Amino acid sequence: MSTTDFLGRAIETVKKAIEEDTAQNYEKAYQGYYDALNLFMLALKWERNPKSKELIRQKATEYMERAEKLKNHLSDDSNKKKPKAISANGKESGSGGKGKDDDDLDADSKKLRGALSGAILTEKPNIRWEDVAGLEGAKEALKEAVILPIKFPHLFTGKRKPWKGILLYGPPGTGKSYLAKAVATEANSTFFSVSSSDLVSKWMGESERLVKQLFSMARENKPSIIFIDELDALCGNRGEGESEASRRIKTEMLVQMDGVGNDSTGVLVLGATNIPWQLDGAIRRRFQRRIHIALPDAASRQRMFQIAVGSTPCDLTPQDYRHLGKIAEGYSGSDITIAVNDALMQPIRKIQMATHYKWIEVAVTEADEATGEKKLAQKKKLTPCSPGDNSAIEMTWVDVKS
């Protein structure tokens, strides 16, 4: 196990926390310090170098003291403020969108909308269609169902109506959730992203009211898209061993998606599952369009390797990428990303394990201060080497000046 992964992430997290601290965003800063401390503890657990351990321990203590001060400061401030209402699943109540005013809602509806407010994506994920390698059929089907009805509503008249439900199904890691992020970015509509934890409550009868309120908010903010990830967790097959709460959730889903008196025009339900055969039959029927997200072909795998490597400097040629795409048969998009991330960490592991370094000269592109023109310059850099090298200097990565 490499400590560099944890230590690097801890350093990045603590940098962001310090920025928030400087900007006096103390709540975000406290959360950042807390997350960084967890990563520092993991790095400390796997670190073998005594000097590195001591350095990590000192920094962790320093940031822990700052986090404690922020915690005390935040608790003092919260005592002075009026407490906020807490929803059944532990989230603070907030505004549910641009629909009804708070004055028109009773306390129960406000609480339910507060619980669902976190499901509305206020910032787009910034993932475009071109960022999704392969899956051309799925992308075209989603454009037909999502983009066209919003951009050209006059095309959908008479009996020609856009799909109300689309089900994405296929093996894990093939890009179903990633496609949903692309839809959220490309579609000019309100996007609700929910999972079973957002809709299941410990209170009797509240789960189905959350489902009803979700669809009510979607209708108020239409055109809108409701994305339900891992749909099988909410809408599995009905049977004798099923709980009453689960049965009521499914019933409410059926009513809201295609029930009498519910106008679902302008609302699209997008579901994703790895096991479509375990979905309730009536729920499955509500998803008129079903798109199979299969494992990528060789050309798609090649593109996925290129996207995963990105702008990281490397010596890979187009032929290398073609070969990687060919030999990675059976890999999902997630498998390829994990494999590339592991390969990208190899130089870091080499630096961490090295006990000797030597100086070498490398060509570096620099901008001229006067003219701004780029030119090549020779710079001395340290690189890991064998202990038997004539130029070897005994040192570890901790001794290298940043």
Automatic annotation (TrEMBL):
Its main location: membrane. It is a peripheral membrane protein. CDD domains: MIT_VPS4, RecA-like_VPS4. Belongs to the AAA ATPase family. The keyword Transcription does not apply. Residues 70-106 are annotated as: Disordered. It is found in: Endosome membrane. PROSITE patterns: AAA. GO terms for molecular function: ATP binding; ATP hydrolysis activity; protein homodimerization activity. Its EC number is 3.6.4.6. It catalyses: ATP + H2O = ADP + phosphate + H(+). This is vesicle-fusing ATPase. Residues 162-297 form the AAA+ ATPase domain. It comes from the Eukaryota. Keywords: ATP-binding, Endosome, Hydrolase, Membrane, Nucleotide-binding, Protein transport, Transport. Pfam families: AAA (PF00004), MIT (PF04212), Vps4_C (PF09336). GO terms for biological process: autophagosome maturation; intralumenal vesicle formation; late endosome to vacuole transport via multivesicular body sorting pathway; membrane fission; multivesicular body assembly; protein retention in Golgi apparatus; protein transport; reticulophagy. Residues 70-80 have a biased composition (Basic and acidic residues). The keyword Hydrolase applies. GO terms for cellular component: ESCRT IV complex; plasma membrane. It comes from Drechslerella stenobrocha 248. Residues 3-80 form the MIT domain.
